Automatic annotation (TrEMBL):
PROSITE patterns, A to Z: DDHD
Transcription keyword on record: no
Cellular component aspect of the GO annotation: cytoplasm
GO MF annotation list: metal ion binding; phosphatidylcholine binding; phosphatidylcholine transporter activity; phosphatidylinositol binding; phosphatidylinositol transfer activity
Organism, as annotated: Popillia japonica
InterPro entries: DDHD_dom (IPR004177), HAD-like_sf (IPR036412), LNS2/PITP (IPR031315), PI_transfer (IPR001666)
Entry keyword set: Calcium, Phosphoprotein
Domain of life where this protein originates: Eukaryota
Protein name: DDHD domain
Keyword Lyase in record: no
Amino acid sequence: MFGSPLALVLAYRQISSPDDKTSNITRPMCNQIYNMFHPTDPVASRLEPLLSARFSLLPPVNVARYTKYPLGNGQPHHLVEVLQANTQIFNDMQPRRLSEVSLQSTVSGIDDIPLQAISALQQKWWGNKRMDYALYCPEGLSNFPTHAANDVIVKEGLPQTIVARFMYGPLDMITLTGEKVDIHVMRDVPSGEWSYVATEVTDKTGRVTFTFPEDKSLNFGLYPLKMVVRGDHTSVDFFMAVVPPKTECVVFSIDGSFTASMSVTGRDPKVRAGAVDVVRHWQELGYLIIYTTGRPDMQHHRVVSWLSQHNFPHGLVSFADGLSTDPLGHKTTYLNNLIHAHGVIIQCAYGSSKDITVYTSIGLKPKQIFIVGKASKKQHSLATVLSEGYAAHLATLLAHGGSRPAQGNARMVIPRGYFGLPGQVNRRRSSAKRTSSYPANVVEGNPLERTFSVRRYQLPKTNLPLLGTQLGGG
């Protein structure tokens, strides 16, 4: 077994069972059980202490790295060898209270374990070898930051509130509680200079909620934000868009509508042909691009990196708050809030067949809902199914009357650009083939727009050391 929660289930049964809690656990119908897990896995648990409490005093077997120990590291794996190597723990198998003195004493007078005790343990053991094996885990993995924050869209004049969560380790195992976090904003994006805003303290859930005071509120525009943990200088980057009323936007669901493979978390999932061009078309018409996903916010950096590598136009990204059991409900709540609280107008929306209920519930008509992939016959009446893919759909949009430019002042205050996070510009296309169906000379013929847009959203690395020095000195 690898990463199995079987031990947790068995422990729960023993605790909740009204029967004798000292009864043996039923032995499985196999010769040997191997319970392998990562030490940082919050789901996996040890089996050996459930069969014999004495094994809680022994660490699990560390699986040696093959590159370092190709023939093994010499640790005993057989049950009898382990008992003989730890006689100070197992030499008294009578049920009595263990004390620190008795465990550490080596002059108890009994050097060998009675055969009767060994036989009793072998009868209830799940095999003839040890069962718990801890796989190699790089040092510091549990301290790996997984900070996340959703991009913010707010109507001008309303409170400008940002929320970020600061966690560490896989599956957000460790919460940063009671730590100071410095908030910075880049008001003048072309200059690349960060402005200090305030310092907040994380709550017991690792969250920071901050509302800009009136004297520091932002005007119309798109602003990069950076929240830096003062203790270890780890940070989270996101954007805030301050938009005028009746801002028109186009919504894209990342899951299923962009990726041709099953998951964004793969090495380099394929992107559906023509998807980038359709998003770029709507951006060129002046619409605000919104990306939604039901994925947890712990995947924020990975998903945004995938969008950047495939040259997706810049947009505001919304993730679910942690592991959600209702990802479609999250999308519905998020879009409804934009429409009713911030006056956003959704021109059209793209997604998979699962997103039809979301887009219908926010008031979109079938001609405004575009579905990519498989759809049932019943769903054809609820949305426009792009059975021929994005390429044919783009030709329809480019035709006369296929689409219109965005109306209002939002297209004048929200600039066009591409995703660009620290360290991504140089490798953006290194691991992904070009997904654009436009001729290559279109970009080359107007290099200023591309250069400006990359510079506009690239958080400058030159200022970060100065920022860290300033924080360290404060």
